[in-house]
Each structure stands twice: as C-alpha cells, then as structure tokens.
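Please decode residue identities from the backbone states below.
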C-alpha cells in the first residue's frame, strides 16, 4: 500500500467514525429522553434530546466500546462535568446503571481492536436499527 493509499484510508476511517459518533450520540440522547425525559443521573427534565450530552463511562478512545450503548448515558452538562471530575462517583454511578455488565465492559475497555476488530458497516447498521426501534415504540418513560 502506498503512502497516498494509507492517507486516503485514514481519512475514510475518520469520516466513518464521525458518522458513527453522530448516530451514537443521537441514539443515546433519544434513549435518555424515552427512559426518563432528560438526564439519566439527576433526572432533570429536558425539552429535547438535543439538550443532553452523551457521557461515556469508558473513554471514546477505547474503540472496543466507543459505540456500545451500554457504555454511555444521556446527561445534562452539569452531571457530565461532575462525574468526569469525580472518578469514584463516576464508577459508583456506572455500577448502578450497568449492574452485572460492569465487569464485562471493564474487560472490553482494556482489549485492543486487534483482539476485537471493529466492522464499521455493522456498527452503522446496528445503530440505525436502534434508532428505528426508538421511533417505532410508543413514547413512554422506562425506569432505570
């Protein structure tokens, strides 16, 4: 592969990741609105999913979890900032939300993409299906 081909491939991957990030953010924030009508931590009501932020438990740099819906919740900016600056509280909240999945996500977060390759096309299809399910199901809050 030539250096130009490598550069083109990196650029294509960046575009794909950006598109997946956008779909993921939309899904997580809409899911939060359906679950509790706003922030999944303080339960402050919001008028729109766009008033929420997507808060990842494990960093987005962990590609094995970057688009895993268990790894994120919709939060108001205040809760997001608070948990990011208070790691012990963040872990406690993560354990509360994830329950038995906490340990599974911890293991996945420490795997490399060589150990668990990512198929961007399948991720995109999956995220689009999740969004469609939110739209198709009747609106209503689901207890966390």
């Amino acid at each position: 592969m030539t250096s130009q081909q490598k550069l083109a491939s990196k650029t294509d991957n960046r575009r794909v990741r950006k598109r997946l990030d956008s779909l993921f953010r939309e899904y997580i924030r809409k899911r939060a609105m359906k679950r509790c009508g706003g922030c999944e931590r303080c339960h402050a009501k919001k008028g729109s999913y766009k008033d929420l932020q997507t808060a990842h438990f494990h960093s987005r740099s962990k590609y094995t979890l970057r688009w895993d819906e268990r790894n994120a919740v919709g939060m108001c900016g205040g809760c997001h900032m608070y948990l990011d600056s208070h790691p012990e509280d963040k872990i406690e909240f993560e354990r509360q939300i994830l329950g038995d999945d906490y340990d599974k996500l911890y293991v996945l977060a420490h795997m490399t993409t060589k150990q668990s390759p990512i198929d961007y096309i399948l991720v995109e299809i999956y995220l689009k299906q999740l969004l469609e399910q939110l739209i198709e199901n009747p609106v209503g809050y689901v207890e966390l």
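Observation: The mean pLDDT is 89.
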